[in-house]
Amino acid sequence: MVRIRFLRATSSTPTRTLRVLAVAASLLPTAAVQAQRAPIDTSATTPHLLPTAVVEAARLSRYAVGSRRTTLDSVAVNQLPAGTLAEALSRLTPIYLKNYGPGQLSSITLRGTSARHTAVLWNGFNINLPTLGEADFALLPVNGATRITVQPGPASAVYGNGALGGTVLLSSPVQWGAGWRGQAQADVGNYGMRAGSVENSFSNDKLALRTAASYREGQNDFPYQERTIDGLVERRQTNAAYRQWSLTQDATLRLGQHGELMGAVWLTDADRRIQPAIGAANDNAKERDQSRRLFAGYRHVAGRHETGVRMAWFEDILNYRSNTVAQSNSRVRTSQIQADHSLQLRSNLSVRVGGEAQHFAARVDGYGQDLTENRFSGYALVRYDPTSTLRLTANIRQAFIPGRRPPLAPTLGGEWQVWQHDTHTLVLKGSAARSYRVPTLNERYWRPGGNPNLLPETSQGYEGSVQHTFKPIPTLSLVTELTAYRQQVRNWVQWLPGDTVSYWSPRNLRRVRAQGIELSSELGWQPGRYTLTARAAYAYTQSQKVSGYTFDPDPVGVQLPYVPLHTVAFTTRQSWRGWQLLTQSTFTSFRYTDASATTFLPSYFLLSGSLGYTFTTRSTWSLTALVQGFNLTNLTYNSYEARAMPPRNGVLSLRVSWR
């Protein structure tokens, strides 16, 4: 839905437009840059009063009602601007990330699915590696975006291929008219940890710019214990050092009263040693990961119509070396274009139709040849609000891939505010969807073992939620949400050793059922100058193979490897007269480490926290000193089998902010 009202007319002559473009060009780097707009209340049915010449557009999430969405606490995330998405998600949510060690590979598990079943979108474009089909969350810096949202479950099919388990959305909404503001932070910690970050932004009613950069390194030479025939022996971790940096540039420029030009650049570079398994010989493995992401787009809003065109170009490079592997190089270039048109048919009815095209060009040593592939998809989305308390969506997406037949992917969703009192609000939510995942390039073309005849994985999923809001007084609120879901994935791809050959090969062997319950409650209290925010979240996740072929050696009816049955996260944030106190605690139950459910890793409870004080030196400047502690109980644990994790450790931070 698009709601636009101009408070006063403004000049949009070509001369003035050219002057605005010239100013923007002088402030931006060579590549185009972007930042998205602040969200609007999509459930409202009355016009919004907007600043001069504002172009507001409906977000794609507007057509994904009925499903759970979690946006990370921006204040808590701001404590680690040089940190990674893996750190933010693992400390602030009950989501389980399989972590091979600090700075090492970190892959996500959403609702009992694998990492390749979660789509990661940056400005609406999927940034998962086409070769692996997933994103390494240890390579995604927190300050690459200003908003991090997780949407698990069926409605994620709205965002395209690969979202069987859910979607992680990275965006940078603009706060128009904010002027200059920014911050710089320096961190120093145990085991050679050094980090720094800087972020600066500017916006008026025409132009918005944001620049963010971060750098971090660590030796990771922490002590750990190894069990031998002589008992526990303390050793020092070797070959686990890392160094990575990131640079982000976003910009949005308003063109007259109806147009908006967007652009973004996101560069990341990581050079890391690969931490050997406990008890294994050090083969001096190392890996270099580089990503270059460019984005540009234009949107035009006039009356009841909105048209948008967006383009993106990615280059992902992965180079691996070790004593046993002389070299393994990979470079994939992805070109994408998206176009859509929205129409407000009535005040409570809107539709959006669109399509996208992708071109992959891969040069991977493991393929033995250069590969190219084209993918296309089209979609239609409908949002209908029959009453002020009922919101409905019906969507459909169809992909077109040469030589393959991805299924039609429909999505239905609804939200109904069944009760509203002075202090209570009760909302029911529900959604259902069919989604799919195209096999990765590695699964089809790796030599030896790739299987070009793999079928797409398909999924049918359902979820229902009840959300209750209690607000007895303006300074106190409690929001609780309970969600139940059920999902079945067919043609689940699994790598297995060959029957007559020595190498492994992927096959469509399984039908997997994932079902569970998610419960969260968030308390907000602000009596005077004291502020408290507390959030508790629990997830029960059952993910099992329910059928397979006779030559599949894995049993039916047991929990899949590295899917914990129970996860809990409890966070608090308190502030008073310049003091800030954050606590973060998570519980992860035991996880099987093999498909036959014979070996497992024990459960663990992690406690972290930070204490800081802000000195206001001037009305526009402030200085914050911060002490952060991790694994405060000094627990010995493993996120992944035979991969050591650090004991108790801390970080000292100093942050300067201005506005």
UniProtKB/TrEMBL annotation:
InterPro entries: Beta-barrel_TonB, Beta-barrel_TonB_sf, Plug_dom, Plug_dom_sf, TonB-dep_rcpt-like. Residues 67-167 form the TonB-dependent receptor plug domain. Coiled coil: none annotated. Pfam families: Plug, TonB_dep_Rec_b-barrel. Residues 183-625 form the TonB-dependent receptor-like beta-barrel domain. Keywords: Cell outer membrane, Membrane, Receptor, Signal, TonB box, Transmembrane, Transmembrane beta strand, Transport. It is found in: Cell outer membrane. Residues 1-35 form the signal peptide. The keyword Iron does not apply. It is a multi-pass membrane protein. Belongs to the TonB-dependent receptor family. This is TonB-dependent receptor. It comes from Hymenobacter defluvii.
